[in-house]
Amino acid sequence: MTRITRSLSGLGAGAVLLLNGCATVPQRAGFDDVRRAVADRSGVTVQWRGQSQADAAADAAVASLLARPLTADDAVQIALLNNLTLQATYSDLGIAQADLVQAGLLANPVLSAERRFTNGFGGQAAEVDVGYDFLQLFFIPLRRRVAASALESAKRRVGQGVLRCSIGSTSTC
């Protein structure tokens, strides 16, 4: 293999790795849309609890509601903020968002290396190959559309679950 060929193959491998990059998933993916939809339809506030500073605000809101005589609306608000089943349902949004991010990523290239020794001649050779299925690039837009549709469906499903709980259908909460 000539020096120019090695440089070009190394440059190609570096470009593939650079294009693939790193992706992060927003921690509360899609939840703001659900929160707005629920507030618009029912007037209650929902909070995805755990690992956020807003949890302290939710705890303070619950304490404030418990400090005065409870109304039916206050009881619903407390139940929605403390419902563990709903909290678990919110993770569906994170999973759907992760699927959307994954759908837009390039597949990893295949790297193979080989070292050969020739018998009796004292020579050796090394070969490194990088392979990539470039046809997958054509499927990325389709995969992203499907994953975006699944995220929207998850938002609606979670919002519907919250609204069901807020009207008192405890069998689904």
Task: Describe what you observe in this structure.
The structure is a single chain. With 173 residues, the protein is mainly alpha-helical. The chain has one domain (3-14, 29-172). It has six helices and two strands. The longest helix is centred in the C-terminal third of the chain and has 31 residues, at 136-166. It is elongated and about 95 Å long. The model is unreliable at 1-5 and 15-20 (pLDDT under 50).
What's this entry about, in short?
This protein is mainly α.
Labels describing this entry:
about 170 residues; mainly alpha; 2 strands; disordered N terminus; about 60% helix
Cα gyration radius (Å): 26 Å
Provide the β-strand percentage band: 5-15%
**Averaged pLDDT, please?**
80
Structural class: mainly alpha
Number of DSSP E strands:
2
Query: So what's the overall shape?
Result: elongated
- Please summarize the sheet with the most strands: 2 strands, antiparallel
H/E series: HHHHHEEH
Question: DSSP helix count?
Answer: 6
First-last Cα distance: 65 Å
Query: Which range best describes the helical content: under 10%, 10-25%, 25-40%, 40-55%, 55-70% or over 70%?
Result: 55-70%
Q: Total domains, how many?
A: 1
The low-confidence parts are: 1-5, 15-20
